[in-house]
Design goal:
CATH class: Alpha Beta
Largest sheet: 7 strands, parallel
Shape: globular
Distance between the termini: 13 Å
Strand content: 5-15%
């Protein structure tokens, strides 16, 4: 049975697709070799575009027998609904990359992202300094908590975690973010990961076939930071 994971936030530009790719690369990489799928449900098709570009690069640099470490499928909600049982059987981990925004003025139960959440085991909500609209984020977080409450007695309950992304130590925006997160936690009781995803250029040079995870000591600060975050992420999703 697969663990189905979503990185979600009401705000766009928060790094959801990047987090999905970095985590999938590590899970499917040589250190772990899990069977992984990313479902690209985002209308921008960010993950699909990166995989298409990678396919062109691979054709130039590698032999014909090269295989990507995991699958990427661009699917609509209806296609996901029809195939989710197969995905649950065939993979260890499935990431669903979704559109960035929910229309908080419409009936939330009728929106596709809410329907997708019925398949999901883990939602990780990324936050970054200077990008937090407390009103919309609070409503979005409470929506997730409502869904979590509805599923608490189900065979597959929903687990919800917050995480800090694009972290820059001592930046004014991140000092403000700490205060905003404290406010959110006091109003929603969302559990936040201890490890933060720091801001490094390495994370922006994305591909869908090379893991940057490294076990043990390294002088590469970006890889060390990601690996620390990923170790905690892995402990959570393996519970």
């Amino acid at each position: 049975m697969a663990k189905i994971i979503m990185f979600g936030n009401q705000k766009g530009g928060i790094g959801k697709s990047t987090l999905s790719i970095l985590a999938a690369n590590a899970l499917a990489g040589s250190e772990f070799e899990y069977k992984v799928l990313i479902i690209d449900n985002d209308t921008q098709r960010s993950v699909t575009s990166i995989r298409q570009y990678d396919t062109e690069i691979v054709a130039e640099e590698y032999e014909d027998d090269f295989e990507f470490p995991y699958d990427v499928k661009a699917l609509t909600y209806a296609q996901i609904r029809d195939k989710i049982v197969d995905f649950d059987r065939d993979y260890d981990f499935v990431f669903i990359d979704t559109p960035g925004r929910i229309d908080l003025e419409e009936d939330i139960k009728q929106q596709e992202i809410t329907k997708l959440l019925s398949f999901v085991d883990f939602v990780f909500v990324p936050f970054k300094g200077g990008a937090l609209n407390l009103d919309s984020t609070l409503r979005y977080s409470k929506l997730l908590l409502d869904i979590q409450e509805l599923r608490k007695d189900k065979p597959r309950p929903l687990s919800l975690y917050g995480l800090v992304n694009f972290y820059r130590e001592n930046a004014i925006t991140d000092q403000e973010l700490k205060e905003e997160i404290d406010y959110l936690q006091s109003n929603t009781n969302i559990v936040f990961m201890n490890a933060k995803m720091r801001q490094y250029a390495l994370y922006e040079r994305l591909n869908t076939y090379k893991s940057i995870y490294i076990e043990g000591r390294t002088s590469n600060k970006a890889r060390k930071s990601f690996s620390t975050w990923f170790d905690e992420f892995l402990r959570i999703i393996l519970k």
